Amino acid sequence: MKRTLVLVLVVLISSISLLMAAGTREASSSRRVAVVTPYMANATTAYAIEQFKADAEQKGWKVSVSDTAGDFGLLVSRIEDAVAQGVDAIVLGMGDPVQMTKGLDDAKQANIPVFGLDAGLVDGVVLNITSDNADLGRQTAKVLAEAMGGKGNVVMYTHDPHPGVRARAVGAAEVFASYPGIKVIQKVHIEVPGPVDNARKITEDLITAKISMQGIWAGWDEPAYGTTQALDASGVKTVKVVGIDGTDFAKGEIAKKGPFLATIEQNFDTMAATLVEVIADYFAGTKPSSNLIQIPGKLIQ
Fold this sequence. Notes:
Layout: H1 2-29, E1 32-37, H2 43-57, E2 62-67, H3 73-84, E3 89-93, H4 101-109, E4 114-117, E5 127-130, H5 133-147, E6 151-158, H6 163-177, E7 181-189, H7 195-208, E8 215-218, H8 221-234, E9 240-242, H9 248-255, E10 260-265, H10 268-283, E11 292-294, E12 298-300
Helix pairs in contact: 2-10, 3-4, 5-6, 7-8
């Protein structure tokens, strides 16, 4: 009788353990992750987010993507929506968390972790995965400065709301300042959405105004592409251009040996896959040892 009772208890305990394990696996596979971004119109942002979504869905997670199309005022609302829906995690896709404090506070109060995908770091963001953006700026600025022979005027195309582009511009400015013969004559904000058209129009205006410039540094590939279009259309051969991101259209322009000299290919595949694993570990109870992961890029000339 005792042996029978022990056997029944063992079977019951084993069954309960299996059910609990199955429940844990089910809970893990049914996680909901909300991605919020103001930049889905940007080619590289869209690519990185779609890669993250694909990698996350392979784990059985449900991923929603909310794009505010450059409207930073809506970002907080989108985070608040995600909190109200009770998602398991929130990912900031290239947005600057400094502008989302209220939403981050709501997520923190609801114990919903927030992660950055090429975004930034503030209180309320568990981890940001990105490139060493200052180094990307320094590398491309050096290519441009050397192509200019270390002298001449440079126009910088920036976008301060993006923390990565902001850091690139700081790194680039440091390099230009190290060349006594180079002067940064303008820093111009590029609008998003529409960076290609905006940069093309600005470059056309600079050409029409006969501004003396020998180089244009762009914080990412799309304004560099618009600039190249304007230079080609006007027949200007004396201005060199660099970008950052490693897009296919940038590589195509570089291969033509025209004004577009170089870009840096960011490893968005690795960023996306790594972030998925970081979040999976977090769900399993392991928090990251650091709040910043920087993935190297590759210079393309």
